Amino acid sequence: MNILCINTCLKHSYVAVLTKDATFENIDETNEQHSKTIMLQIDRMLGATNLDIKDINLLAVCVGTGSFTGIRIGLSVAKGLAHALGLEVIPIDTLNLIAYNTLEKCQYVLMKGIADEFFVGDIVNGQAVNQRLMHKDELIDLLKNSDTICTIDDECVYCDFACKVIKVKNISMCDLVKSNLDKSVVPQDLKPLYLRLSQAEMQKHN
Radius of gyration (Cα) for the chain, nearest Å? Predict the structure, then answer.
């Protein structure tokens, strides 16, 4: 089975191809917009594996949380390819991805949102559960009784949290995708994971 993995929820876009015998991964660090790089990345990764897009049997995509634009780009690409190729897609969420790749036992996983907001998940049995958006003041209070947390963001590392902060450097989707092969869905059932309302939605509710 050949699996194409896509993640545009983080700062740098990520593409991987899993084959029966090997794993190929690429992170684009050009700081270009995901919309400008993701299709080129996919083409390069397929070329590196000597595969055609029609040789892909399954897709995986990070559905959030993250930037609204990044989430939408990844989902649009995954849905478009899935519809065109008649494939299913494995949804992967960002906080679970970070928690899965941490090498130490942590109580919480964090991602920096905008301003003083943070995306937070409790780590239970290696998974990020009870995912929510918290203000920095709430988070500082929550972490008073915590020993260790993990994050991918430098901003979280240098915050004045009263606990140990582990910087997770590996954002590979490969092993997590392999452990979720039974979680694939048809493209029309693929949903974004937004932990924060958009500005337009917040104005609508006010």
Answer: 17
> Is the CB of residue 41 less than 8 Å from the CB of residue 73?
no
Q: Which of 68, 63, 71, 149 is nearest to 106 (CA)?
A: 149
Whether the CB-CB separation of 45 and 55 falls below 8 Å is answered with: no
Contact 79, 90 (CB under 8 A): no
Q: What pLDDT shows up at residue 197? A: 60
Strands (E), 19-137: 23-27, 58-64, 89-93, 108-112, 117-124, 127-135
Domains and CATH numbers, the chain: 3-93+172-205 (3.30.420.40), 103-167 (3.30.420)
Q: Which two tokens stand for residue 111?
A: 């991602």
Let me know: does 62 contact 13? Beta carbons within 8 Å: no
Full-prediction pTM beyond 0.70? yes
d(CA 63, CA 2): 20
Residues of the chain with pLDDT under 70: 197-206
